[in-house]
């Protein structure tokens, strides 16, 4: 599934998210939708090439979302999907620098897992609150900050190895910067503990990744 340059209603975007989830090797977990205070997000850590980072937030239940929360989660799923595709395309090359390969593997793994978690919440929200998915227009996917034109995503596979890994680093830095900008733009409009914690996580962790990828590009 690839984003198109058209304005879409939220219900169409959520359908795209559901399609992505169906293509994933990991089935979305069942989550509990409830009112009131949310359970505290997990505070685990994991080792990545860029250092020790916190794990993606997972809540047992969350407050009822409003449309900005639903929109942010759905758009971030599509944004993450392109990061996975970029990572897979550079990993299709033989002989890429192992540091680039390790970064691409972890980005693909982490963002696939985050897609699965976010999609599980979206599915729960839509099942309980179908009115939120009706008649609400969102940004078209191609205009989201940091999104790469489809032609450049596809071209990554056909580039010579040395050029492909440098292109990947440049594109992923810009892509992460876009995700950070989206997250900062959402904060202040948030009404839901889970999506707020997603935005905070993306700002914190992807800023660290951006610094690492810049250093790696300078070293190459």
Q: What oligomeric state is this?
A: single chain
Number of H/I helices:
6
Main sheet?
2 strands, antiparallel
User: What overall geometry do the principal axes of the alpha carbons give?
Assistant: globular
* Beta-strand percentage range: 5-15%
User: Could you give the order of the helices and strands?
Assistant: EHEEHHEHHH
The rounded Rg comes to 17 Å
Helix content: 55-70%
Task: Report how far apart the termini are.
Answer: 32 Å
Number of E-type strands? 4
- Strand order across the largest sheet: 1-4
Structural features, described:
The protein is mostly helical. It contains 6 helices and 4 strands. Strands 1-4 form a two-stranded antiparallel ribbon. Helix 1 (10-23) packs across helix 3, helix 2 runs antiparallel to helix 5 (161-186) and helix 5 (161-186) runs antiparallel to helix 6. The chain is globular, with a radius of gyration of 17 Å.
């Amino acid at each position: 599934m690839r984003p198109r340059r058209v304005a879409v209603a939220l219900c169409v975007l959520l359908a795209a998210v559901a399609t992505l989830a169906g293509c994933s090797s990991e089935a979305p977990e069942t989550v509990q939708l409830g009112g009131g205070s949310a359970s505290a997000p997990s505070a685990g850590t994991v080792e990545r090439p860029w250092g020790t980072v916190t794990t993606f937030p997972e809540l047992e239940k969350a407050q009822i979302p409003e449309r900005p929360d639903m929109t942010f989660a759905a758009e971030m799923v599509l944004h993450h999907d392109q990061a996975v595709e970029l990572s897979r395309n550079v990993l299709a090359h033989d002989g890429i620098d192992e540091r680039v390969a390790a970064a691409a593997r972890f980005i693909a793994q982490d963002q696939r897992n985050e897609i699965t978690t976010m999609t599980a919440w979206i599915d729960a929200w839509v099942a309980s609150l179908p009115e939120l998915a009706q008649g609400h227009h969102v940004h078209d996917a191609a205009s989201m900050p940091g999104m790469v034109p489809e032609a450049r995503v596809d071209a990554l596979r056909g580039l010579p190895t040395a050029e492909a890994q440098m292109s990947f680093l440049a594109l992923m830095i810009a892509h992460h910067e876009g995700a950070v900008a989206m997250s900062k733009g959402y904060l202040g409009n948030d009404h839901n503990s889970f999506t707020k914690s997603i935005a905070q996580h993306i700002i914190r962790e992807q800023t660290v990744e951006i610094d690492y990828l810049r250093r790696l590009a300078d070293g190459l």
